[in-house]
Amino acid sequence: MHPIIKLVAQRLALGLLLLLGASALIFGLTEALPGDAAQAVLGQSATPEALANLREEMGLNRPALTRYFEWLGGILQGDLGQSLTNKLDIAESIGNRLGNTLFLACAAAVVSVPLAIFLGLLAVRFRNRWPDKLISAITLTSVSIPEFLIGYVVIYFVSVKLGWFSSLAMVNDSMSFGQKLYAIALPAFVLTLVVLAQMMRMTRAAILNLMQSAYIETAELKGLSTFQVIARHAFPNAISPIVNVVMLNLAYLVVGVVVVEVVFVYPGMGQYLVDSVTKRDVPVVLACGVVFAAVYIGLNMVADIVSILANPRLRHPK
Amino acid sequence: MNEQLTHMTKEVTAGKLTRREFMGKAAALGVSAAMASTMFADAARAAGPKKGGDLKFGLFGGEATNSLDPATYASSVPQTNGKQFGDLLVDVAGDGSVETVLAESFEGSADAKVWTFKIRKGVEFHNGKTLTSEDVLKTMQRHSDENSKSGALGIMKGIESMKADGDNFQITLASPNADLPYLMADYHLIIQPDGGLDNPAAGIGTGPYKMEVDEPGVRHMYTKFDNYWNDDAHFDSVEVVAINDATARTAALQSGQVHVINRIDPKVAGLLGRAPNLTVHSTPGRGHYVFIMHVDTAPFDNNELRLALKYAINREEMVEKILRGYGSIGNDMPINAAYPLFDESIPQREFSIEKAAEHYKKSGHDGSPIIMRTADGAFPGAVDAAALFQQTAAQAGIPLEIKREPNDGYWSEVWNAQPFCASYWGGRPVQDQMYSTAYLSTADWNDTRFKVQAFDDLLFDARAELDNAKRKEIYSQMGMMLRDTGGLICPMFNDFVEGVSNQLDGWEVNANQEMMNGLISRKMWFV
Question: Does the domain formed by A96-281 have CATH 1.10.3720.10?
Answer without folding.
Answer: yes
